[in-house]
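#structure-requests
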Amino acid sequence: VCLEVAESRMRKSAVLQAARLVRNHSSFAPGLEPVLKELAARMPSTDTITPGRLAKTGGRSEHFELRFGAAGPQLHGYKLLARKGKSSQEVFVNTKLGREEMEAHVAGAIEKVHG
């Protein structure tokens, strides 16, 4: 019985282990919000994902894209750029994860949401 209780607690704590998605803006680039929710679920609870301002671009991106941008040491993480249609949005990820691990999490989140 004690083992079952311990396993139940571990499952509950695993569910609570997710990065924090900051909601400063009410607007997201098309297709971005579900990807960020999935990305947050894959990352440690000590990490933070903060979407930046939504911008209009001159070009047109037919499919959803989320790629890595320039990131300096002051960010302590990564800057991602989301694009879909004529909208673009920066996303700042504060994490200690390595680049390869972060790329795998981003690719997995996009694959799960957008197939």
